[in-house]
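=== RUN LOG ===
request id: a7f3
mode: sequence -> structure
chains: 1
length: 554
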Amino acid sequence: MNRSILIVICDFLVLSALSLSNGIVQPSTKPVAGFASRAETVSVEKMHTELKKRAALRDEKEQLDAELAVLKESLAKQASRTGVAQSEKERLAAELAVLKESLARQTEQAGVRQREQEKNIGEVRKEYARMQEKAVQLERQLAGAQNELQQKRDALARRETEVKNIQGRYDAAVGELQAVSGQARQAEQKLSFTSGKLQTTEKELQDRRSRTEELSRELLLARQEASRLSAELENARGMLSRAGSDLNAANRSLEETRKELTLTGKNLAVSQAMLTQTRQAVETREKDLRFTREQLQKADALLRSDAWTSYSRAVHELSYHLKNERVMNSFDLKKTLYLPEVKINGKNFLVTSFASITGLDGSISGFTRVVELSYRNRLLSSETEAVPLTGPILSLGEERNVCLIPLRKQGGEPLIPISFAELKKRGLQNLTLFKTGTFGKETAPLDDRCSLGLNAAAPHYLIIRNAIRNSSELPAEVGDFVISKEGAFVGVVVRVRSDAYGRSQEAFCYLFPPAVRWTDAREIPLTKAAGEKLYSGFAEAVNQIQQKLSDAGK
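=== RESULT ===
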């Protein structure tokens, strides 16, 4: 509300109260300027002055406007009436007295706030003095931090010497690894000696890794200590910056003190630069450490083969029980195979040979009345129980000796087959033979024992030579399979042939094409129809496939 309007309203209120106190009942049409006494006029002027002072207080203006509006409304109602009761006059006079008392309290409160502000200024000055003392303490702490940084610098110099010593030991270790690698290549035919040497080398590599990890932990501790000192300096800078801001807001005339704080900030910047140099030195040591680790990893990779790892993650234990009744020579067959899980055409299968999965790799020539038949499978890398297989087994049309057992869901980490073209491009080095009858107990490297067939058209085979006279060499037999050093599935052995003089023997390992065709595949059912007692479907399919292989001379 405008101040002039407020003054006019106050004048009206005061004159109305004076008129009521003199007993005027009827409203007068004459001017009322000269009707009050001199003392009343002086009192009114003092009230005007006081109201002008109070109007300057913005925080209390809204409350005063509300009270005046109420009084104005009350007076308007009284003016419209023909008479006013004496009690109403007293009420108005009491409200005027309350108004005066309220204005007096507001004036007193304004004085109290002014004194509090003056007191706050005094406290700010005391706070400034305390901040000066704190700045001195921070300077002392900075000197201590510089001494500690020097000690850390000396410690880092000692660490650098240790790193150089470790680098020398690493070079010696690399030389030892190269010597071990050469010995391993010369002793490939002696599996037991090579295995022992590799274990010794792995132990040495583990010792090198342990020492490297100890150095890494020491460097990490040094870096953490440098980070802690940097954080403390950053906190000191923040405290000094806040102190400077408070002092500048309280008294801008303290220029000399602010210069001292600026000088302290420069000292902190110098310390921070020293910390930066320390960090760079630590990072340089870490780069050297990473280089050392990379060299160790490369040396380790030269001696490590993924064939074993891939085999252990993909192999399944398949056991089957088959009982065949005859008039004479009935037999009960139980067998356990360790077969790899392979992904073919986007689906997962267990890969084996026809003779291995049907039991026709021994003296059994065929089936007549199969009365019991069960196939059970479990993944060796898990703790799950064996589950029954419902089949059917698939015999491929391109090579009937290759049988695939479909898996309903992925169990392990399936191997990926390598094609003829990929194997030809890769080369025949670092291939490992795994026996299907044991879980990793019988394996042999195939370097210098294998070659690729010359036929350009499919099917393609990897030919493995068996040394008949060398009893220490592990022969490749039907059902065995080959895995590369990279963990790729090469193929499964489907037949073995000897020369006419019995001096040499060749095993044919089937190589899967990039895309297997299912059109000519023959199903071997593992279940029987409802109501039947015999597994006639299984016996009929096995006998027919065996007859085709016999006719083809396979």
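=== NOTES ===
The two ends are 114 Å apart (CA to CA).
The chain has three domains: 3-84, 123-304, 311-551.
=== END ===
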